[in-house]
From TrEMBL:
EC number in record: 2.8.1.10
PANTHER family from the UniProt entry: THIAZOLE SYNTHASE (PTHR34266)
Protein name, entry field: Thiazole synthase
Pfam families: ThiG
Upper classification of the organism: Bacteria, Pseudomonadati, Pseudomonadota, Betaproteobacteria, Rhodocyclales
Enzyme class (EC, first level): transferase
HAMAP family referenced in this protein's UniProt entry, alphabetically: ThiG
Pathway the protein contributes to: Cofactor biosynthesis; thiamine diphosphate biosynthesis
Residues reported to bind 1-deoxy-D-xylulose 5-phosphate: 162, 188-189, 210-211
Assigned GO CC terms: cytoplasm
Function: Catalyzes the rearrangement of 1-deoxy-D-xylulose 5-phosphate (DXP) to produce the thiazole phosphate moiety of thiamine. Sulfur is provided by the thiocarboxylate moiety of the carrier protein ThiS. In vitro, sulfur can be provided by H(2)S.
Keywords assigned by UniProt, alphabetized: Cytoplasm, Schiff base, Thiamine biosynthesis, Transferase
GO MF annotation, one: thiazole synthase activity
Amino acid sequence: MNDALVIAGKSYASRLLVGTGKYRDFAETRAAIDASGAEIVTVAIRRTNIGQNPDEPNLLDVLPPGRFTILPNTAGCYSADDAVRTLRLARELLDGHALVKLEVLGDPQTLFPNMPETLKAAETLVKDGFEVMVYCSDDPIQAKMLEEIGCVAVMPLASLIGSGMGILNPWNLRLIIDNAKVPVIVDAGVGTASDAAIAMELGCDGVLMNTAIAAAREPVRMAGAMKKAVEAGREAFLAGRMPRKLYSADPSSPTAGLIGS
């Protein structure tokens, strides 16, 4: 825990956050999450039963809140009102749980965030006592606005949800990171382990993913790969990469004092 991720005052050893959708069954869900080492798991309240449907299998039986930090999210919400209502339900189902992930979508084709509605919902939720982690566009100005509203983490997309396209705009991410006083967690678009490593090398505090693991040919193995990638990327960031030098060779071995010279 020497380099813990701290969100809303709580420390986490893992910087990989994972979703719980799209797996074959609950057994695969748990196996993949165990392999990932994730401590925070996000749950779509409108799509997954965590107690609102007592006659159906309950995800919390597989991922008990005593073992994992459950992060209810508003996937499938297209207005601030729907998102706020969904998270108030989640708080009731989880006995007053305050940490939530807000996402307000703009359209069903791209799942790009509707930022005016996101800002509106964030303001309401923060005033209502929620600790809001928020999915947002990679706009540095709007990310800063969300931080100033009181969100405990900003979560800019790397590329569209479920696209697997990786980080399309590293420059905007760096602008967000350099100006943020809360954790910056890449959310959406990661496709494979190298994408996760790049996000961490840029200086992101964490990475959240679901499809990249669940849609892999072997989800459990991919979860393990993502764990390693996030750890390696963080270590590389802390170590500090060598400077890039165009057209300037610098041999690894000394050129002076060569044998026979």
